[in-house]
Amino acid sequence: MVRDYSAFLPGAAPARREPTALDRLGWGPAFARQIEAEALTATPPVRVVAVHRSGLQVAGDGIDETIPPGPEATVGDWLLYDRARPRSSRVLERKSLIKRRAPGTSREVQLIAANIDTVFVVTSCNADFNVARLERYVALAFEAGIEPVIVLTKADLAEDTAPYVDAAQAVSDRVPVVALDARGAEPAEALADWCKSGRTVAFLGSSGVGKSTLTNALLGTQAIATQGIREDDAKGRHTTTARELHITPGGCLVLDTPGMRELQLTDAATGIADVFEDIEALAASCRFTDCRHETEPGCAILAATEDGSLDPARLARWRKLQAEDAFNSASLADRREKDRAFGKLVRSAVQAKSDRKR
Ligand SMILES: Nc1nc2c(ncn2[C@@H]2O[C@H](COP(=O)(O)OP(=O)(O)OP(=O)(O)O)[C@@H](O)[C@H]2O)c(=O)[nH]1
Ligand SMILES: [Zn+2]
User: Which ligand approaches the C-alpha of residue 310 most closely?
Assistant: First the structure.
């Protein structure tokens, strides 16, 4: 008998195997290396596939259940499912995390989505197109540890998409740009490189740019109500499930969450620096390390605006994003400080009371 040892030879292609139930949910080495083999049976890994008011819907190998709210987890998270005490299920370390400052005055940080591989930053080839907004969303993706791709929708409605594509491409060398018609079959093909089996993707962008249309195009259904439909259905369809992972025919997981519509930057200094790496590099060569790039002699940034190599509008947007981030991060820090002070006050009041009782 002649045995075939070719699979053991150097350079042999790894044996191809069918994806497991966990692979299909986006499982991979980044998570597997966080747990011991024995733990796998005692506390099987499950992914949070939806967040309902009543709890977290989790799926795993032969598991599809809703567990009560409790673990500090969001859609996309992987948990080690503790059947006896679901609330104590451990959240595995994330590959990426999108969070935001809660709207309104509460200033809490909300977890929006975890373990997203690619964020499609969506805008359209019309009046919605706004470079500052693209920069903000790209910074947010970089900060979250996610690869961003800029998607320009409504290409069919624009006379010429080139100016939009050029402006989007100028946001960052590291971010691919795709222009398309979000309706029909085009998105599945144009976004195929990022929408592979077992990968998790999400769309981020303002209202009406085509996020639901794109999601439907990838899913090959009309599962998500688009704006046109929603207008004559005032009840809204997102009321029962706020955040959910859908699966495409090709096995890609697509996140749908209303929380992705308005995102303020907070604690995103690194993400901003990644988007504006051209300006950051200039800043590093200013004569003074604490240069404010206003009137200082030897300022490389001012020199670049003067010789025309740096667009003053881009410089202004960098300053504005930094200010927004500093404001939001500071108010969070403030809040934490106040919470600590309040906790201290309560503790000393309780102490005083028990002292009096003695
Ligand atoms: N012609 C054309 N229309 C589009 C395109 N993309 C989206 N639309 C239309 O634009 C409208 C808004 O699209 P939606 O997919 O609902 O936008 P959305 O980003 O999900 O909006 P929100 O749900 O409010 O966040 C719908 O009527 C779509 O049919 C496109 O590429 N070309
Ligand atoms: Zn300077």
Answer: 2
